[in-house]
Write a structure and sequence with these properties.
Blueprint lengths: L21 H15 L4 H12 L7 E6 L5 E5 L12 H11 L8 E7 L5 H6 L1 H24 L1 E2 L1 E9 L5 E10 L1 E4 L5 E3 L8 H21 L15 H12 L5 E3 L7 H7 L13 E5 L2 E8 L5 E8 H9 L10 E5 L6 H11 L14 H9 L14 E7 L2 H4 L8
Length: 408
């Protein structure tokens, strides 16, 4: 994927560029936050990359119009998955790749949420707890598919760890094909049109599986307890903690089915390549305070504003930095990667839609930006006639001076 897309956009495409960005907050207040809060290397790396994204630090190129001589600098992106500026084209490309996987069937959106009492344990054991969450949810859905439909279901699950105010809210969004492939692959077994499974039954099985796996990790000594979770290192306290969680009603929410397969991709695009907050939600940064918008889920999604101290905003943002290499989008059942292509083709055959979907062709950044914005980024934004051509490659400053830190 070609870097520096946003920096190379013509002025027409930059009119909606947010006035303030997460990068600005890190540049202005990151040093103060770090002086009071020692951070792991992974968090330091994320902060640094977001700060230098699309700046001279990462290098880039100079373009000149071959008609009027207008010049512009385009700087490279950091490509970090936590960066709000680096996910638009990544998401678009991912969605293109998913088109061939959509079946002519109904789809359901189900959300599995961990009780907030688990948050502090999860923050000390991110990879373990997140893996358990994926395992408990996938096993629950596959078990219901086996027992209720008599076949193998197919679904993808996407991890989110935040709510609208950036607090810890750990949940999985699952996009589920409305049916199952029989185990002998001889039949497609459709689910009911407007009903998949009982959410109460799902929540009970999900709760049992999650807590069993969490207890196993405790028994093997894999869990770490620090800070306010320290008492849970004692077996008696931990078992009391598990007992309390068993007595709670765990939340599983099943939304209404999608209005046709064509809506699936548009919808899941909201959930795939997004972490914590987008830049366009940040309204103002001044006097060491950050103001941003959010939707009040408990009040009919009314849009509101919240103002936090800059250090508190940074703290909340960093809560959602994922463990290095952790996969937050996973496929299960007949959509599991190993046999996905063959299974999808078989499902289509059984549904009477066996025609092959054309393979996705690799699109250039220019083509993708044209589809997304309707703007040809190669056309000169000044004279509207000439073509912007690369005339110089800008070497990254980190190569010239590893200690340089861009502050622009």
């Amino acid at each position: 994927m070609i870097a520096a897309v946003k920096a190379s956009l013509p002025k027409e495409a930059s009119r909606n560029k947010p006035h303030w960005e997460v990068a600005d907050i890190f540049r202005l207040h990151g040093h103060g936050y770090l002086s009071n809060n020692p951070l792991p290397l992974a968090h330091l790396k994320v902060m640094h990359l977001i700060e230098v994204c699309r700046t001279v630090y990462l290098g880039g190129h100079v373009e000149r119009c071959d008609s009027c001589g207008y010049e512009r600098h385009a700087y490279n992106s950091c490509r970090n998955r936590h960066c709000p500026k680096c996910q638009t084209l990544t998401k678009a490309k991912w969605l293109e790749d998913r088109k061939s996987e959509i079946l002519p069937a109904g789809y359901f959106h189900t959300v599995f949420t961990l009780p907030h009492e688990i948050n502090s344990v999860a923050l000390c054991n991110q990879k373990i707890v997140f893996d358990i969450l994926f395992k408990a949810v996938s096993e629950t859905l596959l078990e219901f598919g086996r027992n209720n439909l008599g076949g193998n279901m197919g679904f993808l699950a996407i991890l989110h760890t935040w709510d609208q105010t950036l607090l810890c809210h750990i949940h999985l969004h699952c996009i589920i094909a409305g049916g199952a492939l029989s185990f002998d692959k001889a039949a497609w077994i459709p689910a009911r049109e407007n009903y998949l499974f009982s959410v109460k039954a799902l929540s009970q099985v999900f709760r049992g599986k999650f807590l069993d796996y969490l207890k196993h990790e405790f028994t093997t000594g894999e869990l770490v307890f620090a800070g306010k979770t320290s008492p849970l290192a004692d077996e008696k306290e931990f078992l009391q903690f598990i007992k309390m969680l068993k007595q709670k009603d765990w939340v599983v929410y099943c939304k209404k089915p999608f209005a046709g397969p064509e809506k699936v991709l548009d919808y899941i695009g909201r959930y795939t390549h997004r972490v914590a907050i987008s830049n366009n939600r940040i309204g103002n940064v001044e006097n060491s305070m950050v103001t941003f918008t959010y939707r009040d889920r408990k009040n009919a999604d009314v849009r509101k504003t919240m103002t936090l101290k800059a250090e508190e905003f940074i703290r909340r943002f960093l809560l959602h930095v994922l463990p290095q290499g952790f996969v937050r989008i996973r496929h299960f059942g007949f959509l599991a990667n190993r046999y996905k292509k063959d299974n999808i083709h078989r499902c289509r055959e059984l549904m009477g839609h066996s025609q092959n979907i054309p393979a996705n062709t690799e699109k250039s950044t220019q083509e993708m930006m044209m589809e997304l914005t309707g703007i040809d980024i190669t056309i000169c934004p000044c004279c509207k006639e000439g073509t912007m051509r690369v005339i110089e490659i800008l070497s990254p400053l980190w190569k010239l001076n590893p200690h340089y830190m861009d502050s622009s």
